[in-house]
Structures are given as C-alpha cells and as structure tokens.
User: Fold this.
Amino acid sequence: MKAFLQQVLARLGRDRITARERLYLMIGGVATGGILLYGILSTASWYGDRMRGLDRLIRQKEEALVTLDQVRKEYVRLKNQTGSLDERIRKDEGKFSLLSFLESLAGNADVRSKIAYMRPQSGVVVDRYRETSVEIKIENVTLDQAVKFLSSIEQAPHVLRVKNLHFRTRYANPQFLDVTFLVSTYERTG
Assistant:
C-alpha cells in the first residue's frame, strides 16, 4: 500500500509528504473505502429486501389468481345451472299443475289414500320468479312410503323444491309417521 501511495503522490508532483499528510490520506482512503463498502452493502441489502418483497407479492398474486379462477369456474357452473333451471321452468310454463302432479306422484307412491290435506299456498314473487307452493300432510305412513314419495318429488323432471319437512311418529303406533311438508315450483313473471 505504501508503494501505491508513493506512486499516487509522484503523479501528483509531490515526492515527499509529511507524516501528518500521510495520516490524513490514509484516514481519507479508509473513510472513502468504508463509505463505498457501506453503500455497496446497503444497496445489496435493499435490493435483497426488495426482491424478497417482490417474491412474496408474486406468491400472493398467484394465490389470488388461483382463487379468482376457482370463483370464475363456480360462477360459470352456477350460470349454466341457472340457465338449465330457466329452461326447465320455461318448458313447464302454462302446462304444469303442481296439485295434479303431486296427486299422481302420491298415487304412484301408494300414499294417495293417506293424504290428510293438500293446501295451495299464496304465490310469492321473488326476483323474476313467482313461487307457487302446496302444503301436504300425509298420515299413518311408513318411513319407506314417505321416502318413496319424497324421492319421486325430488326426481321429478319439473323444478320442484321440498321445504319445511316435519316427521312425527304416531302416538298409537310408533312404526307409522305423520309427515308435513311444503312443495314449491317456480314460473317466470316477466
């Protein structure tokens, strides 16, 4: 290092420097080297932190993209399902009577004679659909008969929905049930 300093001083035109000047030059060189080293290390640290932050942000955005893709697929599935429901509702309009359809299903399930009542409910308009409902009570039926009747309603080619399902065992004979439920269908209002 001493040879290097002598070459620098020779080029500056001074061959002899005092000890004090030499000390100042060394302190200046060390300070300059320290500042340069600090600048390089802090820049590298900042760069590393920035890269880690960007990597974390990339992972978050990739996860958000996966979630968005799942939501899109669910939306498409629900839209297709709604479209098929709309098609099924449109196909039944004007040709479908809920009461007579339920009576025929009850006959097929051998519970027609066990029907205590079938009460039509007033229609409710929700969004662009009018819901028409019938409350049914069948008495003194076995669990198999009730399940067969409810399954036939669920598997019907029409848009039907069973709500408010209540089973009660008969006091006199617990093998038999009284079943009360509401069956709804929908039609477009507009």
About this structure: The beta strands are 115-126, 129-141, 160-169, 177-188. The mean pLDDT is 83.
